[in-house]
Amino acid sequence: MLQSMILVQNPFILKIVNMKDSSLSGIDCSVTCQTPCLMQVFWGVSMEELDKMIHMSWLQLKKVLLRNDLQEIRCLGKNQMEELDICENNVLKIVPNQVITAADLGTLPRTRFPLVVLMLRKDCLLEDDDQKNSVVAMVTVVHIKDLVCTLSTTVIAQYLKQASEQICCLKPLYMPTDSSSYQQQYSDNVSGSTQTPAECVVCQTNPISRVLLPCRHTCVCVTCFQDSLPVLCAEESFSLIFVSKTKSHKFTQKVIENLLGQSSTGMRGGQGLMTI
After folding, report:
1. What is the pTM of this model?
2. 43, 79, 131, 197: most buried, per Cβ within 10 A?
3. C-alpha to C-alpha distance for 270 and 249, rounded to whole angstroms
4. What one-character DSSP code corresponds to residue 21?
5. Distance of alpha carbon 136 from alpha carbon 122, whole angstroms
6. Are 124 and 63 a contacting pair, CB within 8 Å?
C-alpha cells in the first residue's frame, strides 16, 4: 500500500552552543527563524505545566504572550518576551531574570525542567487546507547541568505544533559513523552548503540519499537500499524517505513505500524527522 507523506516546513531551529559553559546562570542558543516570531523563555517548568503548554491552542498561546498574561503557565521564572525577525544562526544569551538554583529544581528524580523555550509565529495563517499543516510553534525542553543533576547540558525534546493543532516530536536521524563529521555534513547540506554529503555504508561511493523508517537510519544510497535492508539494525524497515537536493538547495522528502499504512509526517529542516 502506497501512502504519501506530508511535507512540512519547519521555520524554527534552536540549538545549544557552548554547552560546557552553560549553567543555571545563563545559556547560549543559536536561533534560526524563517518567519518573524515571538520567543518566551520559562525557567523551572513542571511536567504538568509543560503538558499544558504543549496542548494549549496556538492562538491562545499567542494571546497569552501578547497580553503578557503568563500566570496561566506557572514556573519558577520567566524572561521578557522577545520579538525575533527572520534570522539565521543568531546566537542569543539566555539569562534568568532571577536567581535559579539546583535546589529550586528539586531533588532527583525531578519533576521540573530547568529551561523551556517557546517560539511562536507572529503572523496569522489563513484557515484553509494549504496552511493547516504549517508549523506555528516549537517548544524546546532543555536540561542544564547543575550540582544535583550532573548530566551534560542537552536538548531533551522539541515539540512542533501545527495550525491544525496536531503535535509532533522532532526525532534525530542516525548517521553511520562514530564521529561527528557525517552529522555536520548533513547539517551543512540542509543549510545549503555545497559540501559533499556522507557516503553510503554499502558501496562507500555514492552519497547517502535514503532515510529508513521507523529506525531513522540515514545510511544508504539510491542504488544500494533495495538490497541492504536492514543495514544497521535488526528492525524491519516498513518505509523510507527520499532525501534529495534540488537546484534551489531545498530538501524534498516523500515516502515511496509504507506497508503499514500508518500516518506519518515528513519535515524539511535541519533538525531531523517528525513523527506523530
Report:
1. 0.76
2. 43
3. 13
4. G
5. 9
6. no
| Residue pointed to by grid coordinates 523563555 | 41
pLDDT in tens, 198-248: 788 888 888 888 888 778 888 888 788 766 555 566 666 667 777 654 333
Between CA 79 and CA 118 the distance in angstroms is 11
User: Can you tell me the distance from the alpha carbon of 1 to that of 258, in angstroms, rounded to the nearest whole number?
Assistant: 6
Distance CA 184, CA 270 (A): 10
* Residue with grid cell 534560526, as numbered in its chain: 32
Residue-wise pLDDT for 13-52, tens only, equals 999 999 989 999 999 999 999 999 999 999 999 999 999 9
> Going edge to edge, which strands form the sheet with 239-242?
218-220, 210-213, 239-242, 255-258
**Furthest-apart CA atoms within the chain: distance in Å:** 57
| Contact call for residues 119 and 38 (beta carbons, < 8 A) | yes
Give the span between the Cα atoms of 79 and 2, in whole angstroms: 47
